[in-house]
Amino acid sequence: MEELELTRATTEQRNPRSMGLDRMSSLEIAKLMNDEDKGVAPAVEKVLPEVAKAIDWAREALGKGGRLIYIGAGTSGRLGVLDAAECPPTFGVEPGVVVGLIAGGDRALTTSVEGAEDDPVLCEEDLRSLGLNSKDLVVGLAASGRTPYVLGGFAYAKKVGCRTVAISCNSESAVGREAGLSIEPVTGPEVLTGSTRLKAGTAEKMVLNMISTGSMVGLGKAYENLMVDVQQSNHKLTSRAVNIVCEATGCSTESAREALDRSLQDVKVAVVMLLAGISVEEARGRLESSSGHVREALEQRSSE
After folding, report:
1. Domain 235-299 is in which class?
2. Cβ distance 238 to 198 under 8 Å?
3. In whole angstroms, what is the distance from residue 136 CA to residue 124 CA?
4. First vs last Cα of the chain: how many Å apart?
5. Which residue ranges does the record assign to the SIS domain (predicted)?
């Protein structure tokens, strides 16, 4: 019965355009895959209202001190871990604010852990170890739409009182039925039958980009389209911080570096002090009263 359910999934069906895949040249394969990928963005476009709701839910959870927790297995799990890992350097959040859980643990990031995704209890244990609470948002990723690890995580999240979001590439999926919100961009049969790391994985990555970026922007992690909470953890990001201050204020590189030194390398403080013509202390105070939103900090009247 389970095998029958899986073969009915769109992601498991054979793609008629790639039936001769094993006879194609390298260029023909590349062209076919590129052509198939052109349908991913339109598939995601159809579910943008649901994505927007997920952004709102994530913003609300993070704003209340909760966490954004991704759960998944295989490629889906790895995509969640990747998105979580990129949030601290990009948005300046602590590593535990956005979390990625993959069936089988860290070893599954590079090596297949057989059977891990088939154990619904395993995800409950992983979520328990995180201290899951009702303020958190749990986002389950399952391209096939039926991963037991994700279903088990949703069952436990419901008991705790968490909101849940399912991301799948099959319509009316099992994970979608179990979640409070279902996002299902249907990308169709893969070029390589059942290999959901291809179009389905691309769609999942696009949706994750929107959820994490949209929620972080809503929390004040951007000014205009600049990542003003970037963490200067390497030379590239240090240079980016200087460039951001220059772009935001129109100042010289020298002035940007000086402002960053005065603000203890806090890009937001440097931007506000330069644009408002105020001290480091007042810039920091304005940002605190505006919950870190640069635009709102700039609109406040000077207290000096």
Report:
1. mainly alpha
2. no
3. 14
4. 73
5. 58-221
114 counts as catalytic: no
The CATH class, in words, for 2-218 is alpha beta
60 is catalytic: no
Instruction: Please name every residue paired with 137 in a beta bridge, in sequence order, or none if there are none.
Output: 68, 163
Per-residue pLDDT of the chain (304 residues; tens, 9 = 90+): 354 355 578 999 999 999 999 999 999 999 999 999 999 999 999 999 999 999 999 999 999 999 999 999 999 999 999 999 999 999 999 999 999 999 999 888 988 776 788 888 999 999 999 999 999 999 999 999 999 999 999 999 999 999 999 999 999 999 999 999 999 999 999 999 999 999 999 999 999 999 999 999 999 999 999 999 988 888 998 999 999 999 999 999 999 999 999 999 999 999 999 999 999 999 999 999 999 999 999 998 754 4
Tokens (6 digits) for 132: 């899951």
Q: Which of 4, 11, 44, 17 is nearest to 189 (CA)?
A: 11
60, 86, 258, 296: the catalytic one is 86
Annotated catalytic residue: which of 36, 50, 117, 124? 117
What residues contact 278, with CB distance under 8 A and at least 6 apart?
Answer: 272, 286, 302, 304
Q: Kindly report the pTM of this predicted structure.
A: 0.92
